């Protein structure tokens, strides 16, 4: 079954896809922010849903539009409700019953600062350990691009002299450029501290450790959970799909591996998902325990047939 990938703004969502166009009862429309891990995760779920007999449509749009679409009948499901990062969008809708909070699909996500393992082994375990070793780090924090949430919170930490970092510089760049710089420094065993998060391929390619936070670093250094959420009528319209999503959970290591294959090795997400499903049928069987296809057959049998 053919999937549709659309990169659209809120204006396009309103003009190109009015409510009537989204009223296909048998089509599950998934909101997909353009993040590598979510791209592959949604593709994995999509291939399973299609094997179960559902039509699917993937809409590549940002979280604010997705949350709005969940409440207006334009989006059916979203597999990337990150908390606490999206709390301001998530909680009001949850409290009003405007979204169906299905389950947690990832519970070991992290954001913060990291150092190479050889630096960690030398005693740098916390943000509090940075300033006393400023000379070894050239008083520099390597960060992702200006305007990102992580960069903004790091600027606030420096501005507020958290952990005596008030005189440190921010070396800001895109994520690929930052990680290239980190890789170069690790080759010569230089000391470097950098923005890090998981799931991401950096946790596979770089031997690294996350630093513990200090008072004032909470907005940057945090653990996150990710929910599967859906429109309020999802259970009624797609009961077996919801039953699958209730069990759809992946580890941070699994999602990091997906990101590595897609974002680092440049494989197509369809191929990454298909290969992973075929090689991890035991996990897929757990997700589909008791789940049926749209015509009443065991869903796991349909998935096995689809990946042959």
UniProtKB/TrEMBL annotation:
Q: Which domain of life is it from?
A: Bacteria
Kindly give the SUPFAM superfamilies that the UniProt entry links to this protein: Periplasmic binding protein-like II
Sample GO molecular function, one term = choline binding
Q: Which residues form a coiled coil?
A: none
Q: Which GO terms describe its cellular component?
A: ATP-binding cassette (ABC) transporter complex; periplasmic space
Give the UniProt keywords, A-Z: Signal
Q: What GO terms in the biological process aspect are recorded for it?
A: choline transport
Q: Where does the ABC-type glycine betaine transport system substrate-binding domain lie?
A: 26-279
Q: Where is the signal peptide?
A: 1-23
Q: Which InterPro entries match?
A: ABC_choline_sub-bd (IPR017783), ABC_Gly_betaine_transp_sub-bd (IPR007210)
This one is known as Substrate-binding region of ABC-type glycine betaine transport system
In the record, what lineage is assigned to the organism producing the protein? Bacteria, Pseudomonadati, Thermodesulfobacteriota, Desulfovibrionia, Desulfovibrionales
